[in-house]
Amino acid sequence: MDSTTAEQKLLDAADALFYDRGINAVSMDAIREVSGVSLKRTYQLFPSKEHLVEAVLRVRDTAIRQDLAAYTSARTTPTEQILAVFDYLYDWFSTPEFRGCAFINSFAELRGSSPGVVDVVRTHKRAVADLIAVLVAEAGRPTTLAGQLLILANGAMVTAAIADSPQPAREARDAAERLLR
């Protein structure tokens, strides 16, 4: 198996396992077993579990940024684009595999022990905040609205995971509509 294939298998297996069970609950041996990549090759590609977690989060970051940008840009007005963020969340929360935000979960689980993971999480959350800030500016709204909308989005992520329901996305969207008025 070439390095690119092995790396992709490891990233896919680690992403699924970390997201489903949590990072600390997943051993490198479990990732080896699911991926089919030897432990020796795993450590050649990712010298530590922390490196693997960071790589998984970077892949998720790229995918989420692309998906969210495509989702919002498909709407015609800046206000509709802002509200589309919450529609995106509703669709995501409605998937059977939804377990909360991988970035929030990783931060909560590893904050004290992994500065690299914290950096990837903060980079992702800043990028989402920047997207929302652009949408708010395009809508001609006050810049302070961006932070308020980000809090609604992140709060919806946590609440939806705890409640095991997509409904918090609808409630956050309703609150966003009130803020936009």
Automatic annotation (TrEMBL):
Q: Which UniProt keywords apply?
A: DNA-binding, Transcription, Transcription regulation
Q: Which residues form the HTH tetR-type domain?
A: 4-64
Per the record, DNA-binding region residues lie at 27-46
Signal peptide residues on this chain, from the entry's feature table: none
Going by the entry's taxonomy, the superkingdom of the source organism is recorded as Bacteria
Q: Identify one Pfam family in the record.
A: TetR_N
Report the protein name in the record. Answer: Transcriptional regulator, TetR family
Record the organism: Beutenbergia cavernae (strain ATCC BAA-8 / DSM 12333 / CCUG 43141 / JCM 11478 / NBRC 16432 / NCIMB 13614 / HKI 0122)
